[in-house]
Amino acid sequence: MKSFFCGPPYATDSNHSTFVQQWNSTFGQQWNSTFGQQWNNTLAQQWKSTVLQQWNSAMRQFDSGFHDLECLVDGLNVLPHVVVLPLAALLVAAVGHCRHHDYSRLPSRLWVLFPGHSVRWLAIFALFFVTLCEVGEGVMSDGFSAGHHPHLYVPWIMALLATVLGSVFYHLVERLNRPGLLLILGLYHILSGGFKLLRLSHLYGRGVSWDSLRFQLTWASVLLYGLLSAVEGYVLYKMRYLSTTPVEAPVPDDLLDETMRFGLPYTSLPAWFAFAWMDWVLLLGYKQPLQAEQLGRLPEGFTAEVALDRLAKVYRREKEKADKSGKQLSLWGVYIRAFILTWEYGLSGFLMLMTQVFLLVSPLILKLIIIYVTMETTKQTQAHSLLQDQYLVSPWEFLQNGFVLLVVLLVVSLLRTGAQATSMSLSHTAGMMLRNGMQAMIYNKCLRLPNWLLEREHVSMGQITNHMSEGCAVLGFLVFLFHFSWSALFQLIAGTALLYYQLGWNAVLAVGFLVILLPVNLLIMKKMHDLNTQKMAKTDIRLKWINESIQGIKLLKLYAWELLFVEKVTSARKDEVKQLYSHARWRIFAIFCNNASPLVATLIAFGSYEYFNDKPLTAADAFGALALFYTLHGPFSEIPHLLGLFTAASVATKRLGPFLQSLEVEGLGGVLRLGAEGGQMNGNVAGDHNGTTKFSNMGQHELADDSSDLKFSTSRPQADHDLADDVSVEVRDGSFTWELESQTANISGINLAVPKGKLTIVVGQVGSGKSSLLSAILGEMRTLEGQVLWNRKQNTVSYATQRAWLLNASLRDNVTFGLPFDHARYQQVISACCLQPDIDILPAGDLTEIGEKGINLSGGQKQRVSVARAMYAQTDIVLLVSI
Fold it and tell me: 432, 645, 723, 763: which has the fewest Cβ within 10 Å?
């Protein structure tokens, strides 16, 4: 009965008989040579005969029960799982109860990952897969042998359940930040690995070879349990979690901020792969419309400031290399080094490669399943299994089983979906970082453009708007879809090889037809590139007229020029729409060619099959080829879109290059503004003695010398740096011009010393150059001759222009301009600028929101707010123009 339950033994009866014969021969010779002469009587012969009979009986009993040890070993492997299953269930319930009642050391929203987190989860996933294969191997081995043998698969079913519960337990322990409970998992892994090692030793002792799937899976289980035990031991030892003074894992600053709800950088590996960190967003969005404040802020590593910092460093480094070598700066190199040559983007590419591999493997698995269904392999397997004296399954037999292939197909599909989604998420993050970084760089470039460059339309507002919107968006999409370009080529080459393997030369003929269409697609893309370039130029004109209409809306209404400007905008829009229609027609033609070409290729492959092959087309080959042609449809449909995206990105890059390298203001006093200690400007410019400025956006964003390429070019070398301590700024023999290429000075022969701590007034007739003088001091004009020197210690500046510039914010925010609110100083500034009467008549006082360009304030009120902003900034020097 035991032999029926456990199955036939691995060893045969010949092993026992041979062993007994060898023992009898050896033992008898030794006995006769040693004791034969002394024990030659009848009593000795009887004693010898009795001993030999007892030994032979014991060996027979041992050999008959030798295979029962197989059941014993498999039964011992059940023990750790039987113990851990109810214990893990109780612990999971207890930990869930603690989490529900907030008994954790940290708030439930915080999640500090333990050391070795990723290695642990990868080992758990691998162990789950190996254990699942052990269950399948046991079921197949049981089916190939007479009788029923539950010991071949029941222990591994228990192990599978224990692995799932153990992973859930670890997940909850990590969420609660209770690392001391990892000792339970460590003991479980050690016991499981030890009993697995006993089973491996048993299989080795019984002569099971490495070619057996059972031997290979047992080896893999031993290694994985050992790896998990090592990880648990390392964590407990490194962090001293079992001691009275454990090492506390630091909580990132982002997690301590209640407004930060973007948990991607701090989530677990399964949640990261399955996007479970977004469950709360989806649930909230299902219940009610999402608001911006509900989403919270982004982590520090995903902000536009970090993107700008990374992009600007690379841009400055590449610009210096280009200047030294005398070559033109390539923005493509900046994109690649800033956001593509990173480990995140490399991981995205690896996952995309795995996606393509899984996609190409699926048709092969489908073919094997069809072969199994048509009984082509079932007969071979049954015939082969009848020849076996032992119930051991080889890896090839295991992979030929149709049910196993169905499970493998399901696993491959899940892995492909997860890998593709994760790859696209990482690529999309990199694309958004590039987009935000370029937008921030363009914004900072606009702050450094001289007024005369904008007024003379060397750089129009339409171009800047186009750069900020369409140009940056195209670059972001390019980074997002870049992996699809090379993966499409890989898919085409690998798919063609697989089709040739299944169908022969007729598949090459079909793919050749698809390749012939590629030049046609290239011609279409070239035409679309030309139309896109023309469309971008028309868009610039339209945006220019729209911007001018909005900027001068008062004059339009006053002089009744509405119809004139409407006609201008409408005409520009019509020209743009013509280009859009032409682009759309060519795009429709490209889509038609790429959608129809795989269908025609399939007809060519199947229609010419009989001509190139002597055998008939089987169902397995036909369905496998159809699946492969379906996979090839993706690359051929994506290639036109990707080529169009590359052309659009090329156009945007060519337009961005001259803009980013256009002339800038020379800085406060040009390169001779000395001794700046990083003083803060009133929302405008501050600089240091290296000619590097710092820009402040409402007091919240400041770029230092190591974070952005903000150096100003100049045509004159540094000369005399001596400046008296009681002088704030001095102009020596200065000549300045507004024109880009002109050598005729608008103001010349300027010698001016502004004393420290005193009021200096420049008086002159209209058009005499008073405002130009201040613009020259601030670096807005191009310097032809002379120097502008600034005090080394006291040189921060605030500036109030002739035309007041206001934010669409409250009056208080316009005065403080991002600086900390100081009530005492604020009241002093309001009183000094005579703003209190104006505040009293506003509906909400100083909290009244000011409309766009101060639409709800009079001219005098706007100027007083502008002066108050300059006064509140607490700078060393205040410049006022014709107030």
Answer: 763
Rounded-to-integer distance, Cα 373 and Cα 375, Å: 5
| pLDDT tens for each residue of 381-434 | 454 444 444 567 788 888 878 888 888 999 999 999 889 989 998 999 999 999
Residue 513 phi/psi, 5° resolution? Answer: -60, -40
Please provide the distance, in angstroms rounded to a whole number, between the alpha carbons at the two ends of the chain: 110
- 526/644 Cα distance (integer angstroms): 8
| Two structure tokens written together for 76 | 């011992």
Q: What are phi and psi of 440, to 5 degrees?
A: -65, -35
- What whole-number distance in Å separates Cα of residue 140 and Cα of residue 407? 14
Rounded distance between C-alpha atoms, residue 134 and residue 143, angstroms: 14
Q: What Å distances lie between residue 873 and 33, 808, 810, CA to CA?
A: 114, 19, 17
Beta bridge partners of 800: 880
Which residues, in sequence order, are CB contacts of 331 under 8 Å at separation 6+? 653, 656, 657, 660
- Cβ partners under 8 Å of residue 179, min gap 6: 114, 173, 235, 236, 239, 241, 246
DSSP assignments along 164-205, one per residue: HHHHHHHHHHHHHT-GGGHHHHHHHHHHHHHHHHHHHHHHHH
Helices (H), 613-683: 619-660
Helices 402-448/343-373 angle, 10° precision: 160
User: How far, CA to CA in Å, does 577 sit from each of 464, 534, 651, 769?
Assistant: 21, 11, 19, 46
**What are the CA-CA distances from residue 750 to residues 568, 735, 781 (Å)?**
44, 7, 13
d(CA 843, CA 359): 65
CA distances from 12 to 8, 205, 210, 389, 617 (A): 9, 14, 20, 9, 47
**736 pairs with which residues across the strands?**
747, 783
Per residue in 101-127, is it b (16+ CB within 10 Å) or e — as a string?
eeebebeeebbbebebbeebbebbbbb
CB atoms within 10 A of CB 73: 19
H runs (alpha helix) in 11-148: 13-35, 42-64, 68-100, 117-144
Question: Running DSSP on this structure, what letter comes out for residue 259?
Answer: T
pLDDT in tens, 260-312: 778 777 788 888 888 888 888 888 888 888 887 788 888 888 888 888 999 98
